[in-house]
Amino acid sequence: MSEIRRRKQAHLELCATRDVEARRSTLLEEVQLLHEALPDLSLSEVDPSVELFGRRLRAPIVISGMTGGTERAGEINRDLATVAQKCGLALGLGSQRALWQDASLADTYRVRDVAPDILLFGNIGAVQARDAGPEAVADLVRKVGADALCVHLNVAQELVQDEGDRDFRGCLDALARLAASLPVPLVVKETGCGFAPATLARLRAAGIRWVDVSGAGGTSWPRVEALRGSPRQRELGETLRDWGIPTAAAIAFAHRAGLGTIASGGIRDAHDVVRALALGAQAVGMALPFLRARETGGQVAAHALAERLCEGVRALLLLIGARRPEQAGLAPRRLGAALRAWLGPDDAVRERER
Questions:
Q1: pTM
Q2: Helix 231-239 / helix 221-228 crossing angle, nearest 10 deg
Q3: Residue 141: what are its φ and ψ, rounded to 5°?
Q4: Which residue, of 15, 83, 155, 326, is most buried by count of CB atoms within 10 Å of its CB?
Q5: Average per-residue pLDDT in the chain?
Q6: Residue 123: beta bridge partners?
């Protein structure tokens, strides 16, 4: 088995069974949505669906990219793609770096035969996108039939990984070239450390229009790498376990920057989904809950999780008086002190009349 396939296998095992989450909060609990006791709505009038990149989703939920490149990864991708197809959700594939290096691994990423109608995201690292060039990246998109591409940024993870990248020069220029040439939409995705306002401004200036904020507070990839690394790397991984910008702050920063926003990083239930929408996200991404549901109860458990999330989002929209997900941003809310410290006083209270 190749080094990259061994690494992917280890990542799956660790995420499925070990304590891999950050110890800090996403700060989503600091978003208190005010209950509307008189919503003047029927539940049947609440429509949690959204249109994203030309596909209609039953609810604004993406089963985020996790894996690929091994037989087990292929089974997971196909099971979760089947769930996404049945429930009307989107799906992200894991990094296609393994496919870029070995074309024989294509079947571990292919899911269109079981999920012909879903919104499907391809995935490649920024360093690999820089090295491969736009034409090769576009070919990776075509090979899996993706509707959009996530290019992920994972500097903290790479620094902890024994075999990780250490040279990140030229990545912004590579993203700008992809934004100008890629035949599908481009989403720049963090991997658990979030985005600062200045970084978002640079991305926007480079022609990027969508980000997946993947803030701190969920799965910590430095922690994952610490669990499989050398003693020196384990120490660095623990140092960086909680590094980053909390998810709630990263969502608000991206919204302020005028970027389309997918919110991920510690989204764990329907309440988190609606809180993220209230902060300005158009959709949310969840990975670890779906992986663990699938690992413990198979496709049935992952399907049940998806159904609970969809119904929970619908109920919560009613409870804040919103007919559609995009109205969540108008709902009355109060932000806690810890989140206000990140965002400033202007966002502390919103009690706008409908």
A1: 0.94
A2: 160
A3: -65, -45
A4: 83
A5: 94
A6: 150
Percent of the chain exceeding pLDDT 70 equals 97
In the block, residue with structure tokens 């619908």: 314
| Residues 213/194, Cβ–Cβ less than 8 Å | yes
> Is residue 186 within 8 Å of 210, Cβ to Cβ?
yes
Partnered with residue 79 across adjacent β-strands are: none
Half-sphere exposure of 352 (CA within 13 A, CB side): 13
φ, ψ of residue 150 to 5 degrees: the values are: -95, 125
Highest mean pLDDT out of 62-76, 225-239, 306-320: 306-320
Section 4-23 average pLDDT? 89
* Opening angle at CA 171, ends 167 and 176, nearest 5: 170
Q: Note the CATH number of domain 3-350.
A: 3.20.20.70
Q: What secondary structure letter does DSSP report for 257?
A: T
CB 245 within 8 A of CB 253: yes
Residue keyed to tokens 């009038």: 45
Q: What is the pLDDT of residue 329?
A: 96
Which phi and psi angles does 218 have, rounded to 5°? Answer: -110, -135
Residue 192 confidence (pLDDT) above 60 = yes
Every domain of the chain and the residues it spans: 3-350
Q: Give the list of residues 6+ apart from residue 232 with CB closer than 8 angstroms, or none.
A: none
